[in-house]
Amino acid sequence: MRRPRRCNEMRRVFGVKKERASAPTVEEATQRINKRGDTIDEKIKKLDGELFRYREQIKKTRSGPTQEAIKARAIRILKQKKMYENQRDQLYSQTFNLEQVAFATEGLKDAQQTMSAMKAANKDLKGTMKSLKMDDIDKMQGEMMDLVDYSSEIQETLGRSYGVPDDLDEEELMGELDALEADMGLETEEGMPSYLQDDKEDETESDINLPAAPSGHAAQPQAADEYGFPTVPRTSIRT
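Above: the chain's sequence. Below: its structure in token form.
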């Protein structure tokens, strides 16, 4: 029971360690400065309205103590406006610097992500290259060439002719071919063989035995209508 009381006394004497607040990010600092800048812009806008009112009063009043009092107020308002404008310019400079830092930070993050992606791609590429060996590729190419040659041999074997003697001499075959050409030339000089002759003589005789054409007036060509059929003479139509 005495232990908690002792702890409280120690805290009272030495105090409690405060937790450090985390540092604001660049975005948070930029938003805070922009908010302060908006507040200052509202104040400057309000002072502009007052200056416009005092200027109109100066125009309407005559020279004298009243006009001088209005001018003094206007000058005081103008000094406040200049002070706020200087503060606003400082805030704009701070915002610009924070934006530059944010841009550099984002650029570094992009570079870091690019490096991570390139490292992963390099690792995958190395793994892929390990699975592709030149010896295996050359071996596969050789096997494919052997298979193609073997396929050609199979096609040639299946295309062989049956019943053709293999012991024929090419010179003897050429001699027989020359003799065949000589015989064909001799038949051409003496006349064509009977099995190559056509029936021109029969056609000539049949043409000679045709009946003679009747004598008399020459036959007049018969007229045709628009469809190509022969027309009937009007004199032959009975009314």
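The chain has a mean pLDDT of 76.
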